[in-house]
């Protein structure tokens, strides 16, 4: 697993990929931060986070699009799948590498908190909860992205489908309000990755939320492994 | 060492590999022969655990590929048809990654990498980016990758495809050298290649095994006749008759010789009778000089065509 993790990390930082990802995130979230915190002279970051979660739609695909699809396209999956490692090693190695890049990026964005700290009195607990939730949301979406990347050998297809589905998940959040059948809106609200995030944004560290995001990631990693497994059994 | 038992692979209703069964003993170099699309690569992919068979099993050293995939994979070095290289790495980085992937203890990395690079002749190329290498060198890096961890079994899928003649000879020598300490399965559609390095061949056609035997037995089994060609000067009907009368001769075919005023006779005789001396004396008796006499070897190509044509017609 660590062999694959290390190679993916090298790949992220030797290609422009990780830098593009970080730059795009910092640029967009910096813009949001300026608008909702600096210009409004507010130390409340909950709005900032709920808008920043929108940024994920755009940048998660950058992080995950080539993770599985590239190996398949270049047939380097032959090396990975015939080496003495399990499919879980392969998938987890790649997942953890993407999550590490995500964490590093979020670490850079902590500069926002520092800025607030200099000029005002931030509620650190609240911000920490929001950051944690924000990270969990990102992690879950990375798992989703890896799964979508494993379905195709084209990076573009992987990126576009990840973009579309993350966007859809985001929209789901607002669609819920217009659904008449209560059970359906409750169900969708319960399943929605973005709705879950609102708790964290308000400073709540909910256990159910944490369990939810880890399960979300787990399910998609499991599906990724199954996709690889299935391909070995039938391929054309 | 390697057992392939009734391995079958279907894609939809197309059967690509159909009940292939063979065994490879420890230390053998086995040639895996077949035309393009015969199912060689699929069989090798199943054997290395890259894909799974529809049914049937393979085992290496007693470990089943489905039940103990990791144990099997530890014992196999695989060079697929297209070497699985990361173009954005240098050779050294790539081999380091493979060492790590194969869980080779870190303190052995340097020694092993130096060793395999020396063996495949890429020692001074190590800092180069893989994407900038020629096809021949990429093939060698692929081979180096397979050799890392010193696996007992090497599976090489068409290792000489796309190489220039000098590189082909080098790779062949290397395979022969590796054969002293490894069990090797080498696939190819080029017969001469297999006949040079392999002790035994397994031939498949349209997914089915058509023969597996030593090279001598295969060339022997094409019939109990031996053939030779004799070129005779100023030949006429008496020559043919004189040859036909010899003991052991079964069939004579007459062709106009390439040289002026000569005839070529293709003589088929019983395998256990050497008719050369009799032919010489017969020609001397009727005063016809023999200009040339050469045996016609039964080539592996003949064997191959004979074995595979039957299958082709059936389908």
In whole angstroms, the N-to-C terminal distance of chain B is 33 Å
What is the N-to-C order of secondary-structure elements of chain B (H for helix, E for strand)? EEEHEEHEHHHEHEHEEHEHEEHEH
Distance from first to last alpha carbon of chain A: 28 Å
Principal-axis shape of chain A? globular
Q: How much strand of chain A?
A: under 5%
Topology overview:
The complex is a heterodimer of chains A (236) and B (315).
Chain A (H helix, E strand, L loop, with lengths): L1 H13 L2 H22 L7 H19 L4 H5 L3 H6 L4 H23 L1 H9 L4 H27 L4 H21 L6 H10 L1 H9 L5 H27 L3
Helix pairs in contact in A: 1-6, 2-3, 2-6, 3-8, 3-9, 3-11, 6-8, 6-12, 8-9, 8-11, 8-12, 11-12
Chain B lengths: L1 E10 L2 E11 L4 E5 L6 H8 L7 E6 L2 E2 L4 H7 E4 L11 H11 L4 H15 L14 H13 L5 E5 L7 H14 L4 E6 L2 H7 L2 E6 L2 E7 H6 L4 E9 L3 H8 L4 E8 L5 E9 L5 H10 L4 E7 L3 H15 L1
Parallel strand pairs in B: 3-8, 3-9, 6-7, 7-8
Antiparallel strand pairs in B: 1-2, 1-4, 4-5, 9-10, 11-13, 11-14, 12-13
Helix pairs in contact in B: 4-5
In short:
The complex is a heterodimer of chains A (236) and B (315). With 236 residues, chain A is an all-alpha fold. Chain A has twelve helices and no strands.
Spell out the key features of this protein.
heterodimer; A: 236 residues; mainly alpha; globular; B: 315 residues; alpha/beta; six-stranded mixed sheet; four-stranded antiparallel sheet; 11 helices; 36% helix; 30% strand; disordered C terminus
């Amino acid at each position: 697993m660590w062999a694959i993790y290390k190679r993916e990390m090298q790949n992220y930082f030797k290609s422009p990929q990780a830098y593009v990802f970080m730059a795009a995130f910092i640029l967009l979230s910096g813009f949001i931060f300026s608008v909702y915190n600096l210009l409004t002279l507010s130390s409340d970051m909950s709005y900032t986070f709920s808008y920043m979660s929108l940024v994920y739609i755009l940048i998660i695909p950058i992080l995950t699009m080539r993770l599985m699809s590239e190996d398949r396209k270049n047939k380097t999956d032959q090396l990975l799948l015939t080496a003495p490692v399990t499919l879980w090693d392969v998938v987890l190695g790649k997942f953890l590498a993407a999550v590490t890049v995500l964490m590093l990026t979020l670490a850079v964005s902590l500069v926002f908190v520092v800025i607030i700290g200099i000029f005002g009195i931030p509620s650190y607990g609240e911000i920490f909860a929001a950051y944690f939730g924000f990270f969990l949301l990102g992690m879950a979406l990375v798992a989703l992205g890896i799964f979508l990347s494993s379905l195709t050998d084209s990076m573009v297809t992987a990126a576009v489908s990840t973009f579309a589905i993350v966007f859809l998940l985001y929209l789901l959040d607002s669609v819920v309000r217009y659904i008449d059948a209560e059970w359906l809106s409750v169900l969708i609200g319960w399943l929605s990755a973005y709705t879950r995030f609102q708790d964290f944004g308000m400073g709540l560290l909910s256990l159910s939320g944490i369990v939810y995001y880890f399960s979300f990631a787990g399910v998609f990693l499991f599906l990724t492994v199954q996709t690889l497994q299935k391909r070995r059994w039938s391929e054309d | 060492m390697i057992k392939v038992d009734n391995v079958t692979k279907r894609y939809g209703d197309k059967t690509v590999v159909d009940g292939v069964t063979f065994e490879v003993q420890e230390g053998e170099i086995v040639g895996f022969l077949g035309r393009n699309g015969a199912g060689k690569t699929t069989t090798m992919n199943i054997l290395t655990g890259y894909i799974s068979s529809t049914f049937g099993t393979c085992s290496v050293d007693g470990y089943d590929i489905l039940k103990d995939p990791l144990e099997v994979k530890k014992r196999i070095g695989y060079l697929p048809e297209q070497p699985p290289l990361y173009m954005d790495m240098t050779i050294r980085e790539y081999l380091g990654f493979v060492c790590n992937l194969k869980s080779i203890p870190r303190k052995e990395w340097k020694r092993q990498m130096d060793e395999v690079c020396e063996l495949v002749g890429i020692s001074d190329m190590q800092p180069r980016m893989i994407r900038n290498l020629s096809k021949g060198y990429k093939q060698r890096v692929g081979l180096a990758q397979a050799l890392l961890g010193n696996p007992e079994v090497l599976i090489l899928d068409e290792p000489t495809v796309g190489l220039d003649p000098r590189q082909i000879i080098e790779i062949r020598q290397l395979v022969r050298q590796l054969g002293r300490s490894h069990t090797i399965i080498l696939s190819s559609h080029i017969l001469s290649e297999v006949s040079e390095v392999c002790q035994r061949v397994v031939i498949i056609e349209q997914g089915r095994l058509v023969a597996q035997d030593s090279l001598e037995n295969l060339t022997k089994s094409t019939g109990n006749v031996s053939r030779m060609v004799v070129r005779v000067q100023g030949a006429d009907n008496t020559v043919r008759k004189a040859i036909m009368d010899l003991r052991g001769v079964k069939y004579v075919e007459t062709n106009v010789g390439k040289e002026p005023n000569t005839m070529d006779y293709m003589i088929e005789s019983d395998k256990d009778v050497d008719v050369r001396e009799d032919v010489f004396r017969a020609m001397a008796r009727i005063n016809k000089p023999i200009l040339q006499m050469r045996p016609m070897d039964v080539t592996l190509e003949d064997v191959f065509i004979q074995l595979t044509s039957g299958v082709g017609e059936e389908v």
